[in-house]
């Protein structure tokens, strides 16, 4: 069974293994913690994930962001980041949601299903009427994942498609989605 779980202490060992192996940058999905050791993960990485989900200790220009691990049974197969609102940089760039599926687990529908689950959370969190996403033009698998989740291409730049998903008239509710006040960014 697939589940989304926010970064948490109980799963720290598996979260650490996933984050330490997640590439530093793949198609624009970045991971500043690639190769991090266990001690540092506990001392600074996981606390940062948890703080940022609460909107605490954000660097200038950052908005609250929840990291959701996608679990299939007892294995983490992907990571989704949900930024709780847009600022100018996100509006023109990465948008609300980014994701990566573990190498070796791709091509099995995880990104498609995981994005559907994160969108359900997003409708209870983001104030905007559309969820913004972006994708490198050379990443047709990710574009397909977005289109299958109801995204449309709003516009394109030299290297990216900028896609959006409209808020459904009656958004499916996720009772566990918790919003953090974004203020005016
Ligand atoms: C892109 C990525 C998230 C896809 O994850 P995934 O779990 O393999 O995706 P899914 O299995 O849910 O769906 C992939 C879809 O793309 C399709 N696809 C794969 N390669 C394709 C290609 N070259 N051209 C067109 N479609 C392609 C698959 O057939 C599938 O569609 P289908 O279900 O209709 O057959 C994964 O490859 C990844 O993590 N890449 C690195 C990070 C990244 O690119 N993140 C996205 C940044 S926007």
CATH-defined topology? Aminopeptidase
- How large is the count of helical segments? 5
Number of strands: 9
CATH class categorisation? Alpha Beta
Total domain modules: 1
Hetero groups? coenzyme A
Tell me briefly what this model is.
The protein is 29% helix and 27% strand. The chain has five helices and nine strands. A hairpin with a 3-residue loop joins strand 8 and strand 9.
Q: What is the topological layout?
A:
Layout: E1 2-6, H1 12-21, E2 25-26, E3 29-30, H2 38-53, E4 65-72, E5 75-83, H3 88-92, E6 97-101, H4 110-122, E7 130-136, H5 140-148, E8 152-156, E9 160-166
Antiparallel strand pairs: 1-4, 2-3, 4-5, 5-6, 7-9, 8-9
The structure holds coenzyme A (COA).
Structure description:
There is one protein chain. The protein has helices at residues 12-21, 38-53, 88-92, 110-122, 140-148, and strands spanning 2-6, 25-26, 29-30, 65-72, 75-83, 97-101, 130-136, 152-156, 160-166. It has 185 residues and is an alpha+beta fold. The protein has one domain (2-166): 3-Layer(aba) Sandwich (Aminopeptidase). The radius of gyration is 16 Å and the shape is globular. Residues 26-29, 99-101, 106-112, 135, 139-142, 144-145 line the site of coenzyme A.
Which short descriptors sum up this protein?
globular; 29% helix; Aminopeptidase; 185 residues; alpha+beta; 5 helices; binds coenzyme A; 27% strand
């Amino acid at each position: 069974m697939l589940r989304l779980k926010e970064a948490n202490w109980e799963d720290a060992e598996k979260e650490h293994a996933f984050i330490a192996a997640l590439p530093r940058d793949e198609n624009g999905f970045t991971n500043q913690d690639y190769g991090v050791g266990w001690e540092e993960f506990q001392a600074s990485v996981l606390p940062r994930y948890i703080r940022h989900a609460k909107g605490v200790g954000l660097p200038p220009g950052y908005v609250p962001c929840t990291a959701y691990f996608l679990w299939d049974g007892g294995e983490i197969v992907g990571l989704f980041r949900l930024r709780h609102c847009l600022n100018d940089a996100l509006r023109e760039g990465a948008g609300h949601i980014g994701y990566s599926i573990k190498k070796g687990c791709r091509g099995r529908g995880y990104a498609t299903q995981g994005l559907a689950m994160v969108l359900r959370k997003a409708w209870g969190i983001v104030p905007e009427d559309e969820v913004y996403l972006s994708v490198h033009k050379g990443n047709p698998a990710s574009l397909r994942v977005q289109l299958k989740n109801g995204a449309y291409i709003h516009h394109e730049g030299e290297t990216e498609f900028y896609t959006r998903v409209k808020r459904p008239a009656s958004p499916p509710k996720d009772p566990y989605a918790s919003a953090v006040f974004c203020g005016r960014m």
